[in-house]
Here is the input.
Amino acid sequence: MPDMLVKLYELPKVEPILQLMEEQNISIRLGIPPEKHVVLDWIGEYFGEAWVSEADVAFSQKPSTIYLAIDQEKQQLVGFGCFETTCKGFFGPTGVHPDYRGRDIGKALLLACLHGLANLGYAYGVIGGAGPVEFYRKVVGATEIPDSVPGIYRGMLRRNAPTPNQD
Here is the structure.
């Protein structure tokens, strides 16, 4: 998956999508430290431990750099988006619970996070290891960065990695 570059100075406004979320009883807000354990457990259950590590870093920032999507009616987490975790100026990871996909929650989290990067003073943001390339291209005009695979994730340690033969 390639990295993608986003012009933060040409982002769509975030307010209209946040209003749409409110109309759907979904709030988008920064995470706070007392809920870190709940959020990290949820991310681990639905998205895996590598993303838990990145979200953990987001909670350690002051203010945090993790946005949460919360179903206000059920008072439960339904999505998250991080920025400034693995690298400065990077967006990701982000995820939305399968039952809530197709409701623009991912778009709202993306825009909130990218506006967060812009508010930190960046002119450009990087979407690291962008999965849904067409989504990012359509929503924020992101462009692929040539030769960016595997990028910063090259050589990353993973659980259950194959072990070399020992003859």
Q: What stands out?
A: The chain has one domain: 4-153. The chain has five helices and seven strands. Residues 4-153 form a domain with the Aminopeptidase fold (CATH 3.40.630.30).
